[in-house]
User: What shape does this take?
Amino acid sequence: MPHTLDPSGPYSANRLFEWVMAIAMVLMALTLALPGDSLDRGAIRQLSDAGMSEESMAFVLASIGMARCVALFANGNLPFYGPILRYIGSVVGATFWAYIMTVLAVDGFVVGKASIVMPLVGSLTIGEILSVKRAVKDGRFKTRR
Assistant: This one.
């Protein structure tokens, strides 16, 4: 189906990964906001050992996730600003996932036991990098000479 016939608008077609990532970030924030120590479990414990608090992670994830939802909505209605907002959200998302992957990788080498979460987070990082590329392409940004 051509992009012009997509009911969500020509700049919102094929953005399922970005929507899933935005919603996942919001749901992760809600989970971290629940009573108890969510980061005190298994492979994720390394994040709290690296100095990340549940409150700070919940705030960052909620902020990024909600901003990305707004950006994805704006993408279909504001063809210039939507891709810029998506670009920023994907860069921040890729950085966040890469940080988590790095913490898990370093801990895996130190402890000698790799986390099964590491390849998943690495895949999310790659997906976010591809989303950056797509947002730039959607925005048709031109460099000034």
